[in-house]
Amino acid sequence: MTDSPHTPVPKPQRFPALRRIFQPVAETRGFARFMLWTGAVLTGLFILMAIFAPWLSPYAFDQYQLAGVAFPQTAPPSALHPLGTNVQSTDVLAQILWGARTELLVVALALILALAIGVPLGLIAGYFGGWFDRIMVLVMDAMFAIPSLLLALVIAFLLGSSIASGIVVAAAAITIVYVPQYFRVLRNHVTSVREESYVEAARAIGAPPSTILTKYIFFNVIQAIPVLATLNAADAILTLTGLGFLGYGVQPTQGAEWGYDVSRAVGDAASGIWWTTLFPGLAIVLLVTGLTLLGEGLNETINPVLRQRAATRVNMEDEA
Predict the structure, then answer these.
(1) What percent of the chain clears pLDDT 90, i.e. is strictly above it?
(2) Which of 66, 173, 198, 302 could bond to 152 as cystine, CB 3.0-4.6 Å?
């Protein structure tokens, strides 16, 4: 049987892999879609601020004078300083723009390190079990028992005297907080997946453990990691600002940091100087809100149980 000359020939789809990846996003409807796109827009704005900070910022993050003339302290918003100046005579707008770069750089570095440590440990412990699994579970549970900010403070205090870069110290402190989460998520998934029939078949044909872990297990347990990483990024922003507020984060000579700015401006509010606390605090709230909405939207988008699809109307008369 040959096709009719008038029968349209279906065109091959371009980039089928990308279509499969973004298909759940296209199928998402309702409030999940709103959360996903709102979070993506807010997060994207701060990413653009961080990338283009040298061009968007009117001054350097630690600049307190122009042409030999010092900026006024705690000056209200004006044409020269759109968001005013703080007690260090630095521009608040410059602090926010450069602070976005510091915040996202520290959080990205911390999450990459946490993934690089927690994911392999979770895969190995979940697949092989035994004494290694018991020791790692005990260690991770002990780390879970310590409040995250307190644990980050201890690590920042211990590393502060040996590492000169405040960004690296803050990233390392945050990394320790989130390694147990990735370990437990991957370990629990691998423990349930390792007994599946396709894993047993891979063992039966003689596949080594490294091949089973990388080709058969990893891509079946990694789906929850993007959602967890996005939500952890929102929490990491709060942890970093907490470290900066207490003076253990990025130092003001090494980069702008919103938590430090808020800590130095706490006393200004009582004097009616509202701009030094309002704008850094608003930046923290917006970035955390954006990352949280993005994470929750991804969760309802990736998870097929939670994902809401568009309803297809069926005409029963035509079907009959």
Answers:
(1) 31
(2) 173
